[in-house]
Amino acid sequence: MTVVVPDAGSFRDPAGYLYELEGRIFRTVTARAAADYEFVRESGFLSRITDDGWFIGARQVELDALGPPAPDVCYVVEHPRVPFVSYPYEWPFSALKSAALLHLDLHIEALQQNLTLSDATAYNVQFIGTRPVFIDLLSLRRYRDGEFWLGHRQFCEQFLNPLLLCALFGIPHNAWYRGSLDGIPTGELSAMLPLRHKLSWKILSHVVLPARLQRTSVSKGGNNKNLEKTTKRKLPLGAYRGMLKQLRNWIAQLDPKDTGKTVWSDYAETHTYESDEDAKKRRFVAEFVDRVKPKTLWDLGCNTGEYAEVALDAGVKYVVGFDSDQGVLGAAFARARAKSLNFLPLYMDAANPSPDQGWGLEERKGVEARVNADAILALAFEHHLAIARNVPLHRLVEWLTKLAPVGVLEFVEKGDPTVQKMLALREDIFDDYGPEQFVSALTSRARILKSEVVSASGRRLFWYERNN
Fold first, then answer.
1. H/E run at residue 337
2. Is residue 376 domain-shared with residue 427, that is, in the same domain?
3. Do 259 and 172 touch, CB atoms closer than 8 A?
4. What is the number of other CB atoms lying within 10 angstroms of the CB of residue 163?
5. Domain membership flag for residue 260
6. Which candidate, 91, 179, 227, 349, has a CA 20 to 30 Å from the CA of 449?
7. Do 110 and 25 reside in the same domain of the chain?
């Protein structure tokens, strides 16, 4: 029996909802959105932005594709499935910036076709590798002459403010954004800004003045006459497009504030492997991929993406990488983009991964609820949790082997220079940390198909296959 599963994150828009059926993704279009959908469809705009790679794509299907339709459903469309669903609080700076530019480019082009976007949420963007794609068909609607950009506040809080947090202060947006799913409130960012920033015309117009209007509206119980007059004024189309273009040019120039090297940002140049040892590691990974032939691989502690690239060259179709260091994530994103790799690097603190959250704890799925890996790599990874974060070794191995049925794990001895640095300023309380304990924990859950020492300090790779 086939089961139609509603997407728990699509309930907010009565224009239509997302559903999954046998791995396929469908969207309904209700009566309230039917006229706009027809206008957008007939304009040819959807076909153009799909061909350009800006839009995920949509194919109209039979009305009963999901079973007997509800009375208010006028159309059903099918979307291609993205390889992995990610959220803005998991994106590195480069990805969030790329998504913001796509949103603005799409809006600017839409206005040329007498169309506009009804909202500006970052959750309407997903990634295929490092390429952002717009996924919300029903955000596109007919443009109304003289209308203002009603999504301006949402765009600022979900795109601009998080980017400014890093560009002005060197503070990554991820933790704040995850704790406030609608983004970084304009009033809170404005309160952080020193006077020299507030005097900037761009920040004044997109952060300081909107924050002041919001405060005034709240203090007057939502009866701010100035705000009401502003939204009722006519905005010429040329001015509308000009505002979007100016904002786009500004965001295109933003970069993270230089706060010096991060913990692992220079790892590729300074890691403890000699060239022949690195070659052993690469050969091991390539052999694993060639034999297992996974379609989707998760690279935990992906660093700059060098082993993700090895896996892709060996035949993996798609790699999702995770790391908690912003410096290496920026380098990984740049590598993937420059080489057009099917590799998406994301931010994750493995000791505190993204949880289920939002309405009903279902709106945004946690990392484990989105696991789709056929295989994992966890190279130079376990000691950062077992030693640096006090995660018991057996629990760490249990978690890793839950993520995928097969994988390659690396164990790092206490005598390794990296571990010694970790222990230099703290007491060694890790009596149960050692190769015997690691092997015991792994063999209680999986078969070890191959192992190999790859460094002079005794680093060892383990190719496992999880027990049924």
1. helix 326-338
2. yes
3. no
4. 21
5. no
6. 349
7. no
- Residue 263 confidence class, pLDDT cut points 50, 70, 90: very low
Q: Are residues 194 and 315 in the same domain?
A: no
Does residue 173 sit in the same domain as residue 314? Answer: no
- pLDDT for the residue numbered 260: 55
Burial string for 401-438 (b: 16+ CB within 10 Å, else e) reads bebbbbbbbbbbbbebebbeebeeeeeeebeebeeebb
Q: What is the pLDDT of residue 222?
A: 58
Determine, yes or no, domain membership for 262: no
Closest to 446 (Cα-Cα) out of 428, 463, 424: 463
pTM: 0.94
| Mean pLDDT, residues 325-338 | 97
Give me the phi and psi of 236, to 5 degrees please.
-60, 145
Q: Who's near 84: CB < 8 A, 6+ residues apart?
A: 127, 296, 318, 320, 344, 370, 372
DSSP 48-72: HHHHTTSB---EEE-TTBTBSPPTT
**Would 187 be classed as within a structural domain?**
yes
* Minimum mean pLDDT range among 164-178, 182-196, 204-218: 204-218
Residues in Cβ contact with 17 at an 8 Å cutoff, skipping those fewer than 6 apart: 6, 7, 10, 11, 27, 28
Residues 173 and 307 in one domain: no
Based on the domain organization, do 17 and 144 belong to the same domain?
Answer: no
How far, rounded to the nearest angstrom, does the alpha carbon of residue 460 sit from its chain's CA centroid?
A: 31
Q: Residue 44 is part of which domain span?
A: 4-79
Q: Reply yes or no on whether the pLDDT at 265 is more than 90.
A: no
Residue with tokens 């006077």: 195
Length of the chain: 468
Q: Regarding predicted confidence, which is higher, 43 or 1?
A: 43
410, 413, 416, 420 alpha-carbon torsion, rounded to 10°:
120
* Beta-strand pair 446-453/406-411: unpaired
Distance CA 73, CA 364 (A): 25
Determine, yes or no, domain membership for 132. Answer: yes
Does 235 score more than 60 pLDDT? yes
Q: Domain holding 285: CATH number?
A: 3.40.50.150
Give the HSE-up count for residue 461: Cα atoms under 13 Å, Cβ half-sphere. 23
Question: Coil, strand, or helix at residue 301?
Answer: coil
